[in-house]
Amino acid sequence: MDRRKPIEGIRQKAGLETVMVIDDDPMVRMLMVEALHEANFNVIEASDGHAGLAMFVEHKPALILADLQMPGMDGYSFCKSLRAFPDGKDVPIVVVTGVDDVESIERAYDCGATDFIIKPIKWAIFRHRVQYILRFSKAMQSAQQSSNLLAEAQRVAKLGNWTWDMDGKQLFVSEESYRIFGVPRVAPEVFHKLLINSVHQDDKNAFDIAVQKAIDGESLDIAFKACLSNGEEKTVLMHFDSSAEHLDPGHRVFGTIQDISEQRRAEESIRELAYYDSITGLPNRDLFKEHLSMAMHQASRNREKLAVMFLDLDKFKRINDSLGHEAGDKLLKIVSERLHESVRSTDVASRGLSDMGTSLARLGGDEFTVMLSGLHGVEHVELIAQRILERIAEPVMLSGNRVSVSSSIGIAVYPEDGEDIATLLKNADAAMYKVKSQGRNGVFFYDDAMRRQSHDRLQLESELHEAIEQDQLTLFYQPKVDAQTCRVLGFEALVRWIHPKRGMVSPIDFIPVAEDSGLIIPMGIWIIKAACQQYQQWCSAGDPQISISVNLSAHQFADENLLSAIRDILEETDMPAQFLEFEITETVLMQDADAALKILNEMKAMGLKISIDDFGTGYSSISYLKHFPADVLKIDRAFVKDLPDDEQDATITNAIILLAKALNLGIVAEGVETEAQLQWMRDKACDQIQGYFFSPPVPPEKAAKMLGKCFPLDL
Amino acid sequence: MSRGIESTSESFDDRMILDEKVLNFLPGGKLMMQKVLKMFLKSSAELMARMDAGLQQNDTDQVLRAAHTLKSSSAMIGAHALSKLCVDIETITFKKEILGVDCLVQEAHKARQQVENEICSKYQTKMLSQPTEGI
């Protein structure tokens, strides 16, 4: 504030603070006005309380100086009246009174006065006094505002602060702390008792430990359930701040208390969303795995068994497709209820399984799991599974239709069938598939045979790795022969595995393993390369006058690196593309016909030949066939094997040959084993013949002897 | 606050007719002081008259109110002796008593006259029999 002596003429300057003087004595008023002008205030005057109130409303002075004894409305009434004004609560009122008049000062305070000044006024200190009171009052107002803001912030955050006198068992708390506990302001002793008593039985121990740690100087958070006197239960988070600067000798701890009930509820509903299936309300796969993990630990500790059932509804898709998803969802709900009932039934307990724990889950689609834990043997597990099957099979009404659903259950038992979650689930799943493969609606335990099979498969996979690395794979070649001249026109390269111990391993055994494990990709590359190298080898002995064909599996065909790999191989082996043919089944092509068309076009652009393998057995589209840039159709052996006697096969095969001719494609009959078949093919003008009638797949040395030759060979 | 103020505060002489130190500390300088003194002469004469009237009518309340007002205004200009007499009158009349008040009022008249004399001689302020316009 500017304390310089005022310059005449700027006295009513705007922006100065206004002080109101109320006194009936004009002499006093005049002196005060003068003194206040000197102190650089705007001044307004009133001769009694009534006038003062009116002027207050109009001018809103920052400070009021009021005489106490005045005719009309005196100073006391003025204070009282002003304090009743909505904006008159905080303005400082300084009463002016005689030095000996203690009684009047007290009365003035009671009426709402802020401070007093003694008469006769000491003018030299008067202005300082006024300025000080104004400053003080502003600071008070701002502190009050801060305090209000803090209280408001605490209210919004549902957060209170407190000081805990551990020795005196007193808890001094802020306004919001009362609100959290739903009580009016109470004494610190009372609140202390209130808090201690509110802590839920389950949290008592943890709470006491936390308090002790706080006394020992540790800062920490503890969340606990608080049971309020009105029966409400809240989740409360208390932060104990025992940092050194706050500590004083009397074992005081400072901290905050917050109502986190809503956060907890939100967390729970998030958990609900994350861990539960929204259709059935059952735990989902993630939560089931958690449950299973906990149960496995417990089983391991207690040397108990635990069973995991994998349940799949038979033909659920058909219900979804025919009755709609709503009906499908309803069925899932009914199934989950029936699962609950089946595992909860009272007779489970009476059968000596009182320790059994159960956990259900929906893994997705129509797959459910049931976990039975705390088992000593598995003799009751099948019984429960059978009851589930029967209960689920009971008819239900869906969209007005009476529907019966059967289900398939596979069971794996810990620890025998797997000691980790993944294995246990996989084996239960495998057992369930075994039920499916054997006609559905049944229960199957994962058993030794399956274990062996699975073990064998794993073994095979690891050996196949080695086989590729150690060159145990080899190619055999089966000739394709001109139907009319019997001349060898080409070979189909077929992979063989000559295992150092097992001998020849059938492709029927190892190709699926290669497909599942992804080994088919490197293996496929190896095959193409080996075939090209073989061709080149034959070339070095003169023009072989043949083409060589290689099969492409679905995995290879979907591999985005396929074309560049072929390009590299052609370059590396100097293979003329027009003599390399790829055999692709129509099933593979039709999986994504548009994508297939693109790849085939690129292959054609590279100069490669394409034949459509196993034609007639898969799902095919004649219109696509028209667009596919194929060179050859291969008639599947299935049509050939009963020729020429089977009239239907004869008709179909004839049609395929005609189709190929119409589309200007070459045609190869596979699986020709008899002279009659050969003759039939010749009669129908089939181009080429492949099959045991001429030759099985043979090793390269033998194939070499067929080059440029006609059957029958003189070997 | 300066040291000078501290040394004068609360330590004035009860018998002092007109305390120059008090006058000199009034806000507003000489012009204001003359204005105040003029006002005092006028209002103190009126208040003395009210006391006289109160005495005649045995109205202790009227005497009390007038004495109370004169007590503060005389103190304000440093007329300590007059102010002291007003305190005495106030004390008695507050108890609704009248005995001895007339003597005190006479004393007060004298003290007031002395104040007027001193004001006139020292500050060339003439006693105004009629109130000045605007006051």
Overview of this structure, please?
The complex is a heterodimer of chains A (715) and B (135). With 715 residues, chain A is of the alpha/beta class. Chain A has 27 helices and 26 strands. An 8-stranded mixed β-barrel of chain A has the order 18-19-21-22-23-24-25-26. The model of chain A is unreliable at 1-11 (pLDDT under 50). By secondary structure, chain B is mostly helical. Chain B has one domain (13-123): HPT domain (Four Helix Bundle (Hemerythrin (Met), subunit A)). Chain B has helices at residues 3-8, 20-24, 29-56, 60-76, 80-94, 101-123. The model of chain B is unreliable at 1-9 and 127-135 (pLDDT under 50).
Q: Which helices and strands occur, and which strands form pairs?
A:
The complex is a heterodimer of chains A (715) and B (135).
Chain A: E1 18-22, H1 26-38, E2 42-46, H2 49-59, E3 63-67, H3 75-84, E4 93-98, H4 102-110, E5 115-119, H5 123-157, E6 159-165, E7 170-173, H6 175-180, H7 188-198, H8 201-215, E8 220-227, E9 233-241, E10 252-259, H9 261-275, H10 285-302, E11 305-313, H11 316-323, H12 325-344, H13 346-350, E12 357-364, E13 367-375, H14 379-393, E14 396-398, E15 401-403, E16 407-414, H15 421-437, E17 442-445, H16 448-469, E18 473-482, E19 488-499, E20 503-505, H17 507-517, H18 520-539, E21 547-551, H19 554-558, H20 562-573, E22 580-585, H21 586-591, H22 593-605, E23 609-615, H23 622-627, E24 632-635, H24 637-640, H25 647-662, E25 666-669, H26 675-683, E26 688-690, H27 700-704
Parallel strand pairs in A: 1-2, 1-3, 3-4, 4-5, 16-17, 19-21, 21-22, 22-23, 23-24, 24-25, 25-26
Antiparallel strand pairs in A: 6-7, 6-10, 8-9, 9-10, 11-13, 11-16, 12-13, 14-15, 18-19, 18-26, 19-20
Helix pairs in contact in A: 2-3, 11-12, 12-14, 16-17, 18-20
Chain B: H1 3-8, H2 20-24, H3 29-56, H4 60-76, H5 80-94, H6 101-123
Helix pairs in contact in B: 3-4, 3-6, 4-5, 5-6
